[in-house]
Amino acid sequence: MGEIFSPGKLMLTSEYFAIDGALVLAVPTKLGQEFSFKETNDGKSLIFWEAYHQNTLWLKAVIDYQNWQILETNIPTSAEFILKTLKNVQSLSNTKFKSNFTYHFTTNLQFPADYGLGSSSTLMNNLAEWAVIDPFYLNTISLGGSGYDIAVAKEKSAILYQSKPEIKYEKVNFSPSFKNELIFIHLNQKQDSREGINFYRSKNKSQKLVDEFSDLTRKILLCNELEDFSDLLLIHEQKISDFLEIPTVKERFFADCPVFIKSLGAWGGDFVMSSKFDGFKDYFWGKDFNTIFEWSDLIDL
């Protein structure tokens, strides 16, 4: 049996504008998704799929890949997504699902599914590594999105990523001197990224605005002082708020917070980033936001 691991990710800059080619800064998380596999030459052409969430069984499926039929499952909609994705793997691979082997796959998501750290993108990267195919193309035809999360999973590093005019990215050293002052707070809900992307796409945007986010990303990467970092993130947050015509998460939930609050990824859910202040734990706990990570707890850098 073989094993592969892909880390989760946090998108620190550019959010929706990544789709239109804005430069993104993203970092890997310590938590990710494990993937184990076994192939048996038994002539049955079956796929046995077991998906665990934090070591608890979530999805089981048996698939006949000669006819691409689900023979049994406990969650039909999720099994359909797995079938579609594995069918895409077959179309891209020179060897996988081409004979009559039986395949046994087990996945284990190490973080709660509502954390928004990349349950689908880590799966795409693990499958692509197993099948020796292009993870970005597999992700495009199976899920969509800008692909930055694939780059983080693939490189297991902080990255600068750009999706247009073509995909390009580079590993970067992002370990700011003030990192131990940074915290991440979960908003107790999962935001639908596709819904947010569709809303973003419905609005007119200029190349100038896309370029402004790329410029902010470069400046944020080079910050040496927490004060400068905070100021840039406040500018970033306000620009997206003005464009989407949606209040910032600070305006909605943390108006009296004495420091910056920065949305990460799709607005309205998942994690936000902030910095420590006197009594910060009591402040967030008092508002029923009880899941707080420090940099060293969550970020794998």
UniProtKB/TrEMBL annotation:
Signal sequence extent: none
Keyword line: Kinase, Transferase
Keyword Repressor: no
UniProt GO molecular function: kinase activity
InterPro entries, alphabetized: GHMP_GYDIA-like (IPR047765), Ribosomal_Su5_D2-typ_SF (IPR020568), Ribsml_uS5_D2-typ_fold_subgr (IPR014721)
NCBIfam families linked to this entry: GHMP_GYDIA
Protein name: Mevalonate kinase
Organism the protein comes from: Chryseobacterium taichungense
